[in-house]
């Protein structure tokens, strides 16, 4: 059985959970908190020497880390990955952008406000500007389109909805992006995400990827 090591409130970890559940994969979720030092234990470092969640142990005993690498592996051959080379490349383009230009700003703003207790007014203005720019780009991309690539949900949507749906927890008003709010609802429905809340309390940032 697939073993998933993750911190429950990490969007990066939820990507793996949602992918496994969408594909009907049997998996064991192993709660691995970052702030309590679980990712620095010798046992976990033997699985992922980088000390980051999510990480998985596959059924054959091999290990894999980095959220987007894991979901690409799990979803290989499924409808979550487009059939044509161009659309697959477009999906990958969004996955790369998510980790480089979206998660470092949207997720960090959320972490600082919700888990460090920093007032929104005290967030680094550059962080806020870049987070809003990322949301604006997504809003434009889904204006007039149901999903980011093609006519059905793909890993591009799954990856980007993880932290986008919680952006308001970082003081980023999703109501300012109506097309984006509609896209979030569509993706949640398509992936059968039961609710908008994380699994339980904790924190998976900044050592989640």
From TrEMBL:
Say if the entry is tagged with keyword Isomerase.
Answer: no
User: PROSITE patterns, from UniProt?
Assistant: GST_CTER, GST_NTER
GST C-terminal domain location is 84-207
Q: What class of enzyme is it?
A: transferase
**Mind listing the UniProt keywords for this protein, alphabetically?**
Transferase
Name the domain of life this protein comes from.
Bacteria
One GO term in the molecular function aspect is: glutathione transferase activity
InterPro entries, alphabetized: Glutathione-S-Trfase_C-like (IPR010987), Glutathione-S-Trfase_C_sf (IPR036282), Glutathione_S-Trfase (IPR040079), Glutathione_S-Trfase_N (IPR004045), GST_C (IPR004046), Thioredoxin-like_sf (IPR036249)
Tell me the ranges covered by the GST N-terminal domain, including all copies. 1-82
- Name the EC number(s): 2.5.1.18
Q: What is the designated name of this protein? A: Glutathione S-transferase
């Amino acid at each position: 059985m697939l073993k998933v090591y993750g911190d429950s409130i990490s969007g990066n970890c939820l990507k793996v959970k949602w992918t496994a559940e969408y594909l009907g994969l049997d998996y064991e979720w192993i709660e691995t908190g970052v702030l309590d030092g679980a990712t620095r234990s010798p046992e976990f470092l033997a699985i992922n020497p980088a000390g980051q969640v999510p990480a998985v142990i596959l059924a054959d005993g091999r290990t894999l880390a980095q959220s987007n690498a894991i979901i690409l592996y799990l979803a290989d051959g499924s409808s979550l990955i487009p059939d044509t080379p161009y659309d697959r490349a477009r999906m990958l383009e969004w996955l790369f952008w998510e980790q480089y230009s979206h998660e470092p700003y949207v997720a960090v703003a959320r972490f600082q406000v919700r888990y460090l207790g920093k007032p929104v007014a005290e967030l680094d203005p550059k962080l806020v500007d870049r987070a809003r720019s990322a949301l604006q780009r997504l809003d434009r991309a889904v204006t007039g389109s149901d999903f980011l690539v093609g006519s059905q949900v793909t890993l591009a949507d799954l990856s980007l909805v993880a932290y986008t749906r919680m952006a308001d927890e970082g003081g980023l008003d999703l109501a300012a992006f109506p097309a984006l709010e509609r896209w979030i609802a569509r993706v949640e429905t398509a992936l059968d995400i039961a609710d908008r809340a994380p699994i339980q309390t904790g924190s998976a940032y900044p050592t989640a990827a």
